[in-house]
Amino acid sequence: AVTTFRDRLQNLCSNVSDMGTYKDLLFLDIALEVYQRQLVERIIHIDIGLNNYFREIELLLDNLLISFDWKELDICRSDLKAMKVDTQNCHKDYFQALKVKGLIERMKRCLGEVVDRCFEIIQPRAEELGNGCHCDKAFVSIFSEDVIRGSLFFALSMVIKKVEPVLRKTLGILNWIIISPCLLYTSPSPRDQRGSRMPSSA
Description:
Layout: H1 2-13, H2 19-43, H3 50-67, H4 71-82, H5 84-87, H6 94-132, H7 137-140, H8 143-149, H9 152-171, H10 190-193
Helix pairs in contact: 1-2, 1-3, 2-9, 3-4, 3-9, 4-6, 6-8, 6-9
């Protein structure tokens, strides 16, 4: 329902000329996006079944693509829809699990790009404003993390973390192979050389 409403709002926004109305619709869309993330938080600590988790991933991709015109995410969504039947048995079928794991890895690369871009764009401005306003440096230093943590990208990463243990077990991949226990994943970047600022569930 949230996805349907947001999709309708997007169509309304594209046809609105009054700035006041546009702002109201935009704030409503932001509220619905926040609500979608809250719904994910409610289910993330319970077992709703593998198929339902994949359905949640699909819904999150739908919502993200309402806000972002991102071809790679769109391809991931299309591939997930195409292999929906496969995900029903990926907890016991090696080759199906391998296909789904490959798709999950593509999503994680997208999430890694989000982390890096958010840090590069937002964090310098946050530090400039924070220092100018004499804000606590402890809060300023994690500002970009909090921005990510409040987004649907972070919600997607939480759901992905719920399905990965099943895929690893099916594929015989041990836990120690996972490089980072964080909920969002990135490839090495200049930022990583200065120390990890990856958002975690803490």
